Amino acid sequence: MTDFLQFIEDNLQITYILILSIFVGIEVIKSIPAVLHTPLMSGANALSGVVIVGAILVMLHADPADYLALALGFVAVVLGVLNVVGGFAVTDRMLQMFKKKK
């Protein structure tokens, strides 16, 4: 726990930027109309793919004894994959709405 607090203390400005970006992201997402949500979600799949690749690269270069970096990388990969799969499922469902019914 002291290591975590020391990390926060050493990287206080980065922590502030992270917290501010979370609040800005929430405000931006809340202001998007529901009509635009699905097309934007399909475009966000590319960003989640970049997150997955970045997390894998971080895990490859992490020290095998650094369990924190490996655990955070694993969580990033799992959440990125869930986001990509969910985005493709929603996009496919949206595209099914535009097909002609038999």
From TrEMBL:
Keywords: Cell inner membrane, Cell membrane, Membrane, NAD, NADP, Translocase, Transmembrane, Transmembrane helix. Its main location: membrane. One of its GO terms (cellular component) is plasma membrane. GO terms for biological process: NADPH regeneration. Residues 16-100 form the NAD(P) transhydrogenase alpha subunit C-terminal domain. The chain crosses the membrane at residues 12-32, 44-62, 68-91. It comes from the Bacteria. GO terms for molecular function: NADP binding; proton-translocating NAD(P)+ transhydrogenase activity. The keyword Transferase does not apply. It catalyses: NAD(+) + NADPH + H(+)(in) = NADH + NADP(+) + H(+)(out). It is a multi-pass membrane protein. InterPro entries: NADP_transhyd_a_C. Its EC number is 7.1.1.1. It is found in: Cell inner membrane. The transhydrogenation between NADH and NADP is coupled to respiration and ATP hydrolysis and functions as a proton pump across the membrane. PANTHER family: NAD(P) TRANSHYDROGENASE (PTHR10160), PROTON-TRANSLOCATING NAD(P)(+) TRANSHYDROGENASE (PTHR10160:SF19). This is proton-translocating NAD(P)(+) transhydrogenase. The lineage of its organism: Bacteria, Pseudomonadati, Bacteroidota, Flavobacteriia, Flavobacteriales.
